[in-house]
Every structure is written in C-alpha cells, then in structure tokens.
Amino acid sequence: MPFLSAALDRVKPSATIAVTDKARALKAAGRNVIGLGAGEPDFDTPANIKLAAIHAIEAGKTKYTDVGGIPELKQAIIAKFQRENGLTYQPNQIIVGTGGKQVLYNALMATINPGDEVIIPAPYWVSYPEMVALAGGDPVPVVCTAEHGFKLQPDALEKAITPKTKWIILCSPSNPTGAAYTRAELKAITDVLVKHPHVWVMTDDMYEHLVYDDFVFTTPAQIEPKLYDRTLTVNGVSKAYCMTGWRIGYAGGPAELIKAMQTIQSQSTSNPCSISQWASVEALNGPQDFIPVNNKAFKERRDLVVSMLNQAKGIDCPRPQGAFYVYPSCAGTIGKTSPSGKVIANDEDFVTELLENEGVAVVQGSAFGLGPAFRISYAAKNSDLEDACKRIQRFCGNLR
Question: What is the C-alpha separation between 20 and 186, in angstroms, rounded?
C-alpha cells in the first residue's frame, strides 16, 4: 500500500515557485541571474503599515483571534468593498485567510464534489486548476487567445457551461497576462452567467489597484447585482500594499458560503496571523496615496519591457492593462537552435535555455495553460529589467 496520498497524482508543483527556487540556487552557486519569475512588488511595505504591526506587538495583540478575522479588519474590509466597489456586506459575509490563495482554496474545498466542473479562462494562474483538482473537481480550461486580448469571450463561456459546472474563476487584471476586462466586456460575461443560475462566480481581484492608462476597474457583483448572491469576491493586501509576506487575503460573499469556508479554515490553519491582521487594518483604512506613485513606476517598467521585448527576434509582446506581468509569445523561436546546440521545441525549452545561456529566469507559458509564451514579472528595478531584456534580445539573436 503506497504511503503517499493518491491526491498528489492530481496536482503538480507550482511552476512559478520552481523557477524562483532554481534562480536562487544558481545565484547561490555564483551565477549572475536576474529572476523575473516571482509575482511580488519590489517596493517595501509602507512605513505606517509596518508601524501598526509594531504597535500591535507592543500592545500584546499576539494571541489567537476569531478564525475568520478580527472584527476591526472585517469592518475595514466592509468599508473598502463599499467605498471602492459599491458592494455592501455584513460581518458574517466576510472571511480573512492566510493569503488570497487560502481563501480560494477554502471556497473550493467547501463546495466541490467529485465530478463538479470549474471553468478557468486560460492563460490562468498556475494554482487554479491544481486547487480544483485537489478538491476533487474537474478544471475546464477555456483558451483565450492574444487576438482577443487574452480575455474570455461570451460565446466561449456559453459553450463551456454544462450541468456539472459549479464555478467560474475570473481574474482581472490577470495573472499571468495583465489583461483586464472593461466594464462592457465584463457585462457581456455576466449576461451569460445570469442565464445559468447553477454557476457560481469566484473573482480574484488581487490586482485591482494595479491598472494603467486610465483603465477603470470593475468586478462582477458590482456590474450585475443579480449575481451578488452567488459571487465570492476575493482580494487581499499582497500586491497593491506590498505585503506579500504578511499573508492576508479576504473575501466577501453569501453568509452560508463564508460559514462553510470558515469551517474548513478552523480545521486547517485557524486564524491568520494576528499581527498581520492589525497591519492590514491600517493598510485598508490608512493613506492610499502611495498606490498611484507605485503604479507610475510599474507603468514605466511595463512600457520599457514591452518596447525592448518587441525588439527581440521571434518575440511578440502585447501591452497589458494591469498587474505587473507581460506575456510575450515566443512562437517565432520554436524550431531554432540555441548556442548550446539545443533545438527549441517548446516554451519550456525556451525558458530553460534562456536561464542556462543568459541567466534570466522567466516562467514558461505552458504552465499557465497557453503557449508557446513566457511570463515576465516586471516588479523589479529598471536597471535589472533593462539588463534582462538586453540578454533576451541577445539570446534570441543568437538562435539559428
């Protein structure tokens, strides 16, 4: 009898974490490596948020809290949803978890039965299909091409829905493409979903504040009130507030679902870190003026990376509306031979050879459900981005 669970056969390790770990290992071995695989801002957590955490420690707020979050943080989240999204929730409709990933996982574990299907637009964040599979469900990827801006089309959604469909997961702005749905595009999607009352909507709004070029963010329950009672709106402080390591995510949704998610959480991690929760109260309630400052820097980096990648042979890089990722096609490099003599058969070969030859760590598009492509996180200093793009240009120029 095997010792390990058969559930492991349904799930793969995170490709983004694997790339980051490999880059770290090469750096430790003395290689000059630029890691552009990790999806986290390089800016420090704002001082007022760090100070709130210090005050919480000094005040002895270091004990267990309510499983689903302290009342003060729930009220801050309620105020945020009302202020920024026009959504009204009560405390029993809010849950706080150890990062947005746990919130998503709790929801799937609390609702998925064997054979349930979850529609996931591709390219997708690597963890979505794996979490669905781990919960016993069947991920249903729907390919969204560059020609459509990597966005789900209403007719494709309609075709993907079956009587077994339990959820659709939407992420806007997207990880990994940075694509963001306009209000009109989102309305077309919600119009389809209104017709299928058995389908619930899980929205990952983690990159809500990271949008550029006057783009206006909206979320499904805000667009279509008829979906309010079957929508879980997920967000967190990781990206906009530069708090990835603090591990705080949250969601608003129907009370019955939130209660079920809290039950799952109570038997796994219990409450999120008390200190991080108090820091998050300050993040949501405190000054927000640093966000547009950071966004200005991100936009400059986006424009730099898009321009330089489009000068690389065989690379085509669309300009994203949000997040801090670009998702260039490397189709023009497939079939060519690298300086090491390796034939580039797919995007995994491309990123492997790029790392070995030029010391640039990126993630292959096939890990996100659509290749041949690769994801770059431009949440790095300009000099590193410029150096990395020059190395990519050189690598592509040396392919034969």
Answer: 33
- Cα angle vertex 153, ends 147, 154, to 5°? 160
- Sheet of 231-236: strand order equals 94-97, 249-252, 231-236, 200-204, 165-171, 117-122, 138-143
Give residues with Cβ within 8 angstroms of 153, minimum separation 6. Answer: 144
> Minimal CA–CA distance to 154: which of 125, 181, 122, 189?
189
Of 270, 268, 209, the C-alpha closest to 243 is 209
Type of residue numbered 318: P
What is the per-residue pLDDT for 13?
79
Is the pTM higher than 0.90? The answer reads yes
Cα torsion through 338, 360, 385, 150, rounded to 10: 80
Instruction: Report the alpha-carbon distance of residue 141 to residue 369 in Å, rounded.
Output: 8
Q: How many CB atoms lie within 10 A of CB 390?
A: 15
Give 386-396 pLDDT, tens digit per residue: 999 999 999 99
Instruction: Give dist(CA 179, CA 215) in Å, integer.
Output: 11
Distance CA 120, CA 148 (A): 16
Is residue 291 a contact partner of residue 240, using CB atoms and an 8 Å limit? yes
pLDDT at 385 > cutoff 90: yes
DSSP-derived secondary structure for 314-374: T-B----SBTTEE--B-GGGTT-B-TTS-B--SHHHHHHHHHHHH-EE-EEGGGGT--SBE
